[in-house]
Amino acid sequence: MSETLTFTVACPDCGSELEIDAATGKVLSHRSKSKSRGPKADFDSLLAGIDDSKNRAEEIFRQELSALDDRDRVMEEKFKRALERAEEEDDGKAPERPWDFD
What we know:
By secondary structure, this protein is α+β, with helices and mostly antiparallel strands. The chain is 45% helix and 15% strand. It has 1 helix and 3 strands. Strand 2 (17-21) and strand 3 (27-31) form a beta hairpin. The protein starts with 5 loop residues before the first strand and ends in a 14-residue tail after the last helix.
């Protein structure tokens, strides 16, 4: 048997090693780039990140709570204006019912 000619190249995108057959141009094997398994950050920076996310969550909660209070006030004001408009447009007659038209 004759030995086939292969090329080993590095992928410019992900850095993995590709073994390519010279005759067909097909990929024979793919080896991913090794990833380091060491810690990405120390404990103090992780703890500070947790504190920051907790503060952000509390701030968002306060904003939503104030928006809810403001929404109640706005709805109350809209109701008052609609009630005033209904009293102005009242002609004293009862509204006609659809079954009275028969």
